[in-house]
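Database export, one record per block. Field names are fixed; values are copied verbatim from the stored entry.
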Amino acid sequence: MSRVAVIGAGAWGTALAIALGRKGGHAIRLWANEADVVESVATRLVNERFLPGFEIPQAVKATQDLNAAVEEAEIVVSVMPSQYCRALFERMAPMLGPEALLVSCTKGLENGTLLRMSEVIAEVVGRRKFTPRVGALSGPSFAREVARGDPTAVTVASEDGELARGVQQAFNSSRFRVYTNDDMIGVELGGALKNVIAIAAGVCAGLDLGHNSVAALITRGLAEIARLVVACGGRLDTMAGLAGLGDLVLTCTGDLSRNRSVGIELGKGRKLPDVIAGMHGAVAEGVFTTKAAVGLARKKNIEMPITEQMFAILEQGKAPQQAIEELMARAARAEI
């Protein structure tokens, strides 16, 4: 029986723990920052705060003790919000051995450094005189649907083929299909940047715009994500896969998307602080990623007009209708 640590007991972390526990063959430690989450999982086998209504398998044990969660773990699944990734890995680094497989499932970028999560992990853990084994898991996967057991397909990316195959073997089941990929740049950027476009899709819904608008947004959003991926060294074909087009379509159109929900409220005229306050601790990664995405695009001299307009809405209070009008008024050009 392998030992797996899931670090982060929000909806997504809990859903991954459920998927692992449902498959069997794993002893799973689910680390939560919140005492009430640990108590809820321990006594009622459910995460009442972040994923109510879904039974958690007995193989999953919740804890607030980070050392107990990580100790002797063969796979460490990182599912914390992006802004906490560095601090948590600073705490975990002394507990991690060189053979541990570190898998980032956080879809975001670090503000300030503009680093992907795998880069943050490698930088922090790499200070311990060994090169950590790092991968990233991403794809179209709403937490509630994974927890419910709906057929889901994702991809795990790593330059370490043995890691990718090991994580694939650990997670793959009849309800949770895992592919492998060696393009970590494309997989991570696709997963992070689609959240920005999903907020924009929500804005369209909040403004009562139709399917034409959302289809155009998804298509042109994918184009600008792909430009940045290639400029950063990722592959264009990754953007046609699960971590690219698949996740983008899901997050831009699905009612369970937190990022899309934020956009809907912005489109209706609500202010961002009020929208965030009403989320009761849930995280919409696109809100944090937009600033980093703009910084990375400017660093690479890549044009990302939708992302730039979302930055203006989120960070500068720009009216959504004005942002759309400016996008549509841009100079006409060839599509490809």
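Remark 1: The beta strands are 2-7, 26-31, 60-63, 75-78, 101-104, 133-138, 152-157, 176-181.
Remark 2: The chain is about 50% helix and 10% strand.
End of record.
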